[in-house]
Amino acid sequence: GQLIRLAGQGGAGMGGAPAGDLLLEVQVQADAQWQLDGRNLVGAVPVAPWEAALGAVVPVGLPDGSTLKVRVPAGAQGGQVLSVRGKGWPGTPPGDLELAVRIVLPSGLEPRAKALYEQMAQALPDFDARRVAAAEAERAQP
Q1: Vertex 52, ends 67 and 42: CA angle to 5°?
Q2: pLDDT tens track for 15-42
Q3: Distance between alpha carbon 123 and the CA centroid of its chain, in Å?
């Protein structure tokens, strides 16, 4: 919605008058991967389960074609938002980059992954994902 004024770059004036100003209105094209929230650039960062559990530095491709390395902390949970200050929409001040952690699981149909999932199930028999999620939701309540 910002207007850019280019002095003297518009159409020629009537009767030999000098050219007027050209006004351009900036429109941001919608993107399936990124959204703007003010100056903040909002998206997701896909991570493997072990990257979320152990922590990792992962590459994130940005809309301008560059790549930024982002630190995923150990114990990251799906939906957790990682903020990178000053890496959002350019400006004064620049916005932040807000990345929701998206944990991508290997398919349980793949034999090696299935065997590892079975090992985890045997090694962690008391782990109850629904109980843990309910406890986290309760802690998040004001």
Answers
A1: 45
A2: 888 888 888 988 777 778 899 999 999 9
A3: 34
